[in-house]
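Case 471 in the screening queue. Each case pairs one protein sequence with one candidate compound; here the compound is iron/sulfur cluster. For every case the pipeline is the same: read the inputs, emit a complex structure as tokens, and attach any notable structural observations.

Predict complex for case 471.
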Amino acid sequence: MTERNRSVSPAEMEKHRNCIREVYARNQMSGSHPRAYMLTLGCQQNEADSEKLCGMAEAMGYEITDKPELASLIMVNTCAIREHAEKRALSLVGQYKHLKAKNPDLIIVVCGCMVVQEHRIEEIKHRYPYVDILFGTSSLHRFPELLLEKMSRGKRILRSDETVYEVAEGIPIRRENEIRAWVSVMYGCNNFCSYCIVPYVRGRERSRKKEAVIEEVRELVGKGYKDITLLGQNVNSYGKDSDFSYDFADLLEELDTIEGDYWIHFMTSHPKDASRKLIDVMARSRHVARHFHLPMQSGSDRILKAMNRRYDFEKYIGILDYIREKMPDAVITSDIIVGFPGETDEDFEGTVSALKRARFDMIYSFIYSPRKGTPAAEMEEQVPADVQKVRFERLLAVQNEISLSANRPMEGKTLRVLCDGVSKNNEALFSGRTEGGKIVFFEAEPVDTGKFLNIEIERGEAFALYGKVKR
Ligand code: SAH
Ligand code: SF4
Ligand code: F3S
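Case 471 output:
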């Protein structure tokens, strides 16, 4: 095993548990009823981390609340992927200033990807003096230790990140949902796409041991979870830091043998190493959902090269064709960046025609946001904001039409849908998702929540399907 995928030592984990016990004891002694509030920005990986932060907080005696004004511990788990995410994090942290003024004993924690960056640590240090504890993504398991230190010594703890990235097992988890669960299979990223901050804020790739992943999934299925999403920045790299003879496709195949009625999703898969073996395993599996999220980023080979993505459009579309050959009903979604430095009208048209050829069911599209310290931020020919905006709107319009033409033919079909409960947007309806992740609205009963239902689709729109339950 290499240095990179080192596990956190048993002694360190023992210290972690001791700190949890000690904070718990202090909270008990204080006679108060401590509550913790968690705010999460960013991707599923951050949501999974927040479930661990809440798990630790609960084990330390805090009740999790959704009201920050009731909390004696506020945790903000930040994201750095685009400027907007960082601005939001800072403005939210700013809003807690008055809570601290009212309650000087309130402890404010800022963690996650944004605060791995030196300039953000400095900024929080000077401009947000009421932030008590700051730590980065590799110190997650040290949260109890840092909280204890703050409680005992009172001083601010602004900790820059560890340089050694490790895998910690056995952190308590408080899951947000009783039907769908996240399971990280690996952490970090080695790809260094030229626009992306993730490798700088999440460290190098390190995989969890397959036994730990399998055990966790088995336990979740046993508890009745119906949809389990395996997480990693590039799941295709699973195992490459330790055992080359066992890859992500092998892991999926082994997980698929777990008995039960459930789906396994995974994200994200990098096109440069999405293998035929992986697609074959999916096609013959019982539980792996026929959904592929395969970020294309751009349809122009020149831009893909400048992005350091290490595939061209021909290779990309070859993977899509193979997925559809093996699984004609697979749902395929993607990420697209608009306005990358040097993107010409011609490059952008390349992306538009790539969308028309790829016919994604849905895309997540982003306007390029320069990230300090990444190569793309230093590139000349940054695309002006107004040009980016025009291209972005056009991209959305093109994709809407494609999504609509992918969803219309669903009308009249009966699809298996996992019911999430009453819709947040329209309380008269329930919502759920298909195997491919499409949102479906329908009338149902409270007892249907958490169940697989057969829904006859009556209407297919660009962003959702509408139908009725077939009993
Ligand atoms: N590991 C995943 C992506 C994680 S980030 C992958 O490689 O597919 C999610 C998406 O955010 C990326 O796919 C990309 O489309 C977008 N993104 C990343 N950095 C960005 C930036 N600097 N500006 C705009 N979008 C960005
Ligand atoms: Fe970022 Fe590229 Fe890694 Fe995805 S693969 S996290 S886009 S560097
Ligand atoms: Fe995720 Fe944002 Fe970090 S997208 S990995 S939380 S930078």
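Case 471 observations:
- The first strand starts at residue 35 and ends at 40.
- The pocket of iron/sulfur cluster (ligand 2) is lined by residues 189, 191-193, 196, 198-199, 233-234, 270 (CB under 6 Å).
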